[in-house]
Amino acid sequence: MNKSKFYIFIIIGLLLSNILLVGNLMFKKKHRKFHKDNPKNLIIKKLGFDENQIVDYEKLIVEHREFVIKADEQIISLKQELHKQLLESNNEKKVLELSNEIGKLHQQIEMIHYKHFSDIKNLCKAGQKEKFEEMIFDLEKIFAPLPNLPPPH
């Protein structure tokens, strides 16, 4: 095989791999875009909430998001300050303080999540509490990022 045939073979192979890559990325993007069962809808469906419960649940979601967003903003601010320490003298005490504060905020977010689910449980009526208890073991799947979720049943 001479050099020109070898180069043509390589170019065709690279071209085909690029086409496959672009096609794969486009397919995945469309798949994520049309995923209609978000966590809110899944929880409403699994627990069988009535209209009043849905209104109350949506209020809980707004409150929950506000708390989490506020904590996330604080974490971002602390991380920026932590990263600035790389430019300054090696102040291990300051780095430790900042990382501890970030850890406390992560703990606070977990407690916010826990309270949110406790509030959802309190919205449930007698028959729904059993469904809630069953759903507890699926929370990680329900709130997983979209690409990792299996298709809805």
How do the helices and strands line up, and which of them pair or pack?
Blueprint: H1 3-33, H2 39-47, H3 51-84, H4 92-123, H5 126-135, H6 139-142
Helix pairs in contact: 3-4
CATH architecture of the largest domain: Up-down Bundle
* Strand residues, percent: under 5%
Strands, total number: 0
Structural class: mainly alpha
Overall shape: flat
Question: Average pLDDT value?
Answer: 84
The ordered H/E elements are HHHHHH
Task: Describe this protein's structure.
This protein has 153 residues and is mainly alpha-helical. The protein folds into 2 domains: 1-34; 37-148, Four Helix Bundle (Hemerythrin (Met), subunit A) (Up-down Bundle), CATH 1.20.120. Helix content is 78%, strand content 0%. It has 6 helices and no strands. The chain has helices at residues 3-33, 39-47, 51-84, 92-123, 126-135, 139-142. Helix 3 packs antiparallel against helix 4. It is flat, with a radius of gyration of 24 Å. The N and C termini lie far apart (53 Å). Residues 29-35 have low confidence and may be disordered.
